[in-house]
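Q: I'm writing up a methods section and want to include an example of the input and output format. Could you take the sequence below and give the corresponding predicted C-alpha cells, formatted cleanly so I can copy it straight into the document?
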Amino acid sequence: MKNLMTATAIAALSAGMASAAGHGEIKVGVFLGFTGPIESLVAEMGPAAEMAIAEVSDSGAFLGGTKVVAVRGDTTCVDAAAATATMERLVTSDGVKGVVGGDCSGVTGAALQNVAVPNGMVMVSPSATSPGLSHANNEDNGLFFRTAPSDARQGVVMTEVLMEQGIKEVAVTYTNNDYGKGLADAFQAAFEGAGGTVTISAAHEDGKADYSAEVGALAAAGGERLVVAGYVDQGGSGIVRGALDTGAFDTFHFPDGMVGNALETIFGSEIDGSTGQAPGTDSPGAATLAEMSGDAFDATSPFAAESYDAAALILLAMQAAGSAEPADYKEKIMMVANAPGEQIFPGELAKALEIIANGGDIDYVGASAVELIGPGESAGNYRQIEMKDGKVSTVKFR
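A: Here is the clean output for your methods example:
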C-alpha cells in the first residue's frame, strides 16, 4: 500500500531532485531487436518508448528539470552473445540508468543474468513473454519487470479463442528458442486441459530457405488449424508460406510474435479466416496513444503500447525515489504502477511528475492498462484478431 509522504520525505525528495538535476542529462537504454526476426514490430516499439522518454524530458518537471536521452541498443532478438555485448555497452560505456527491454525472451534472460544483475541495472521489458521469466525476480534482486503478460496467460487465451470457434484439434509449430518452446508448452497444457488435442508440437529453426520437411511433418499429423508460435519476419512466415503452397493448411492461429502489419503485406487475403491474439486493450489510454503517435509509429502494433509504458514506469519511479539510481528507484516501480493514486494516461507524464513532486500518489494506467502483479509483470490484456479481406481485424479484447 502507498503511504502519504511526510514533510520530511517531501523535503528529502526535493533535495534528491535538486541533486539529480546537477548531474546533467540521464540516459535510458532502449534495448530492442532493431534487426532480426521481429524487426517490423520493433520499428513501432522503439519510437513508442522514445516518445515517453521525450515527453518526460520536455516536461521540465523531471528530477528538478533534468533532461532524459534515449540510447538505442540492438538485441538482435536471437543472438544472446550479441545482446549481452550490447547490454554491457549500454551499462558501462553509455552509462544508462534504466533499460527498456529486452524484447525476445532468450536475449532478455541472457542480458539480465550476465549484465543487469551484476551491475544492479533495472530492466522493464515490453515484450519478453516466456513463463520462465516469471521466476527471474527470485534471482534478480528486484531489478526485472515487464509490461507484457506471461505466455502462461497467453496459452489460456489462445485456448479460449480456438475453443469458442469449435476448433478442437490443432498442429503446433514453434520457433526453437525460449519464447517459442515456453509458449508452445503453455498452450498445449491449457488446450489439452480444456479437452483439445495437439496432433504434433514441433520446433522450427529461423533463417531457413526451405521449410518443406517441417510442413510435411505438420501435414502428416493433421489438425483443423495450424498454430504458428514463431516470428512474422522469419521462420513463422516461412512455415505459413510452405503450408499454403502445398495445401497442408489454409487457416492458422497466430500468437503475438506473428501478429503485425507484415501479415497483410506478405499474405493478405490468402490467410483470411485465420485468427490470433497479441497483448492489447481498448482502454482510454490505448486510444490516446494512437492519437498522440500520428505518423511517428503505429500504436496498435503489438507491444508498442507496452514499450511506451515501460519507459514511463522507469522515469516515474525515478521521480518517486528522487533519484535515477536503480538501487533507489527499483522499489518504486510497483508503487507508481498500481492503485491507489490518481490515474495517469499517455500524454499526462508531466502531470504525474508534478503530483509525485508534491508528495501525491499516482496509479499509472498508461496505454496498456498497466497493472503489475506478483513478480512485477503485467496481469495481461489481449486483442483478439482475425484476418478479413487481407487485413488484420480486431474482433474483441480479453
